[in-house]
Amino acid sequence: MSPLGRRPAKGKGLAGPRWAQSTGAMTDIDGKKRPRGTARDRALGLLAVRWRSQSEIERRLRMAGFEPEEIGETLIDLKRAGLIEDGRFAREMVRDQTTRRLAGDRAIRSALMQKGVSRDIADLAIEEAGAEETRASALASKAAARMAGLPPDAVHRRLFSLLVRRGYGPEVARRAVREAIADLEGIARAVDEP
Length: 194
Hints:
By secondary structure, this protein is mainly α.
């Protein structure tokens, strides 16, 4: 049922002012649209999905239309409760990027900076992740196994571009690609020998 007490005709949904009334969009006296609920409720809803940085939550609340004072109070309360901590957010994101995607330090640092984490906190979290070379070798070996039938120059080109796209530096990528191709050729020789 619509808020007007009758069902709209088939194919005729609510539009215009009637739709705004039915969705519960609230407006101030000035005619400005106000978000539903409180900034705290919205922030808790965002945190229920995944950990977020302070600046990410602040940006999302601003985009939702909350007042700066309410946003500031909400951020202070959530920090005091231990629900917003950029260090923990950075560690969780680094853990995810290093285990699931096998991403390089450059890509991880860039992703953290986009989320509003300071460079110092990002560097500390990346240091705890371990050696970048190990991740690059693991990714190159995993990808090289799927390219077993291709010529070596094509494997080299594809692996190198994969590693650079994932955020590894050129030198780290070259070493990892050389190791992966050498392993792949060693396996091919072992299979070919009677």
